[in-house]
Amino acid sequence: MAKYIFVTGGVVSSLGKGITAASLGSLLRLRGLSVANMKMDPYINVDPGTMDPFQHGEVFVTADGAETDLDLGHYERFTGVKMSRSNNFTTGCIYESVIRKERAGQYLGQTVQVIPHITDEIKAFIKVVAKGCDIIVVEVGGTVGDIESLPFLEAIRQMSLEGRAHDFFFVHLTLVPMLSIGEMKTKPTQHSVRQLREIGIQLHALVTRSAKPVPEDQRKKMALFCNLPQDSVISAYDVDSIYHVPLVLHDQGLDDLICRHMQLSMNPPDLSSWNNILQRMSNNSRQVVSLVLVGKYVDCHESYTSLREALVHAGLHTGCHVAISYADSEDLESGSGDDLALADAILVPGGFGSRGIEGKILAIKYARERKIPFLGICLGMQLTLVEYARNVCNLKGAHSVEFSSSTPYPITRILNNEDVIGEEPKIGGTMRLGEQIIILRQNSMIARAYGSREILERHRHRYVVEETSLAVLEKAGMLVSGHSPEGICEVVELTTHPWFVACQFHPEFTSSPFSGHPVFMNFIRAAQEFSSFKQGKLNREECYVPQDC
Ligand code: GLN
To answer: Model-level pTM greater than 0.90?
Structure first.
């Protein structure tokens, strides 16, 4: 039977519950346990697929094609375990399932209520994922005290009552703010823990977020007020990188505490992989490359979490520091492109909606003409082809049909027309999602980057490249270097440019801090060389050429 760790949060949101849960998953795995991570989100949307990235941040796509919370990305990156559709559910999913059962007459005349029907459903969703693993780390979205998360808290309280006490471990994460005079305040934590106890949940560990390590006397005080032994108060102070967190928690004995409570006699974790990352990070002599990310969600960096992490990983594994600056594509439309002038590399990521589209096209033109290493992802690839059609093939008015249904030169077509504009139009969950096979062209830039001719990458798009237009672009020098088995265009590149690649898939979802990702590492190597070339340290001919494939 699986053991359960529940991670809740209090005082304020965005404290890093996801990173804490991911770190715990990693530490326990490194002790040799089979661990699953999952997250319950308190909102009514069935998944975050239709939510505004400004509000929700990135949508993380799993291999099996679920649109999930960005914390699942942290779980995968920290633990190396692939998440699936069942590792994330929302209040919306729970109600959808209960209502479906009610309509099917499965409740045999009962009045369907939050307790027990909704809470039972929550427990059932958790147990499905728990099956077959030693420990499951369940993150409870939202903040204790919110009306929305009450059914989740009630469900996990019931679960702990139904099983053996040592199989359940409750971790609560709170904020310990610091006043301007440098004093740390523990009162909000005390209140938050009291709220949990009112619901009937007694903690086993308190993890406090603060700017500086919490001093001993403050820890003692919180332990006393929260009814905990002192070594169960862990200080998660601010660190330079999220990849420090597993070590910060381990150094204060959190994974030890869990194993003792759960009566697991495991060896200490082998932390060499984490130490290796920290060692790479602490190398201050790393070359700095400046990458400009051109998007429309640039004021909300959480919209690009996986992308940012993939770039960090690429820097770590190519021995450089990738300094990311964010250029608002709408600003580029009105300005001259000055934001791009210092770029060693330009990236146009995925996106939806027409705002800022022309700015992205300008950025692509800039990278193409000035031979700046360029990576376009998903929408970034579709716009790469729009730019080429307009400015190289002279097809005036060429566009993606997502933004212009009457364009004379449609560069894309909608994939599942009947879903989106059928009798009952659906938007949620109607895209081409998840892992798909891609066949790469021999000796292309992309095949050489992967060192392979066949790859699997994740997708999230509604439009695909229109074949007739693509043929015109190919004649004018655009190389199609990857396609799906059904013939959907997956990668394009320019052979007349040192590094210009655009792909329909999202390589950022599969990048690992421990090994990086071939596309990003190649891209960043090209950026390093471009930077050296600009500084007169390298000739173009000396630039990096990946192995033949
Ligand atoms: N909006 C485009 C499409 O649906 C691109 C999607 C994306 O970038 N994820 O095809």
So the answer is: yes
